[in-house]
Design brief:
It contains 11 helices and 5 strands. It is of the alpha+beta class. It has a 5-stranded antiparallel beta sheet with strand order 3-2-1-4-5, with no helix packed on it. Helix 3 packs parallel to helix 5 and helix 4 runs antiparallel to helix 5. The protein is elongated, with a radius of gyration of 22 Å. The mean pLDDT is 92.
Length: 280
């Protein structure tokens, strides 16, 4: 059971027509090529992008094209089957629910009241959108809820590593992990009605790092207006320094400048977050 993410008519080097179907479900994607001599070639005429279908056949691993299927047939899914497919498999739903609970619990344990308030505000305002966003379009966790999986994984690593290096400041590190990909809530957001990730103008024109910096700054203005802010200004690092250190974690987490990195890593926390994000 899959959604047709794209249906495209193409031609081979010999100028023979074929149809290319991009298939997606809650877990993965595959491409199915339907050659002109296939009995199913004419069936492609009735297929449209966004359709939910069942494909039945003999699936196998093709040496050149990856996962493929022989002697297949297709039918449209019923509304009940479509709803079940959109929910995703039970094991994935359970994993993502547990990961989200871990993120909420981990940020709730932050001792710095400014960072605690900032993370709580973000989760309250954007939690639902967060749970519908992917970690990436193709590279990793490219599915609805993938950003939750990726973020929880990084927080689990931080919880194990940070106690070995007290100077890392676990509060800042956890907040940095929560916000480092927060711009992907726009860049990689998926609707609840399908598995196709639309392109967002804000995400394409600005990029997730810049959007994430904007999110932090906007929320920081809200906590500065909090009635408790007078007490928070007595804490170290100072309010603006705390904000700057957090922004630096988002600005420097990518590996190279040509991957959209606006700032080089300058603190041990920034290096730690980078390696948690890019373990290879």
């Amino acid at each position: 059971h899959v959604q047709l993410e794209a249906v495209a008519s193409k031609t081979t080097r010999d100028q023979k027509p074929y149809c290319e179907l991009a298939l997606a479900d809650a877990v993965d994607r595959m491409t199915l090529r339907v050659w002109s001599d296939s009995p199913n070639f004419k069936a492609c005429d009735s297929m449209e992008t966004g359709d939910f279908v069942e494909i039945t056949g003999e699936f196998y691993q093709h040496q050149q094209y990856g996962l493929d299927v022989r002697r297949w047939k297709t039918r449209r899914l019923t509304s009940e089957e479509q709803a079940h497919l959109l929910q995703g498999p039970p094991e994935l739903r359970a994993k993502q629910a547990a990961d989200w609970e871990f993120i909420v619990a981990t940020t709730a344990a932050i001792r710095d009241p400014r960072l605690y308030a900032l993370c709580a505000e973000f989760i309250t305002d954007y939690g639902a959108r967060f749970r519908n966003s992917a970690g990436a379009r193709t590279y990793h966790h490219a599915r609805r809820g993938g950003l939750v999986e990726h973020t929880a994984q990084m927080m689990r690593v931080a919880a194990q590593i940070a106690p070995l290096y007290p100077d890392l400041n676990l509060d800042l590190l956890v907040a940095g992990i929560l916000f480092h990909d927060s711009g992907k809530l726009w860049e990689n957001h998926l609707p609840e009605t399908g598995f196709s990730m639309p392109f967002d103008e804000r995400g394409e024109m600005i990029g997730h790092i810049a959007i994430g910096l904007e999110v932090v700054n906007t929320l920081w203005l809200k906590i500065e207006a909090d009635e408790r802010a007078a007490e928070w200004r007595k804490l170290l690092p100072r309010m603006d320094d705390c904000r700057m250190l957090l922004l630096h974690l988002s600005a420097s987490h990518h590996s190279e400048m040509h991957f959209g990195l606006p700032a080089c890593r300058k603190t041990p926390r920034a290096f730690a977050l980078h390696y948690f994000d890019n373990p290879s």
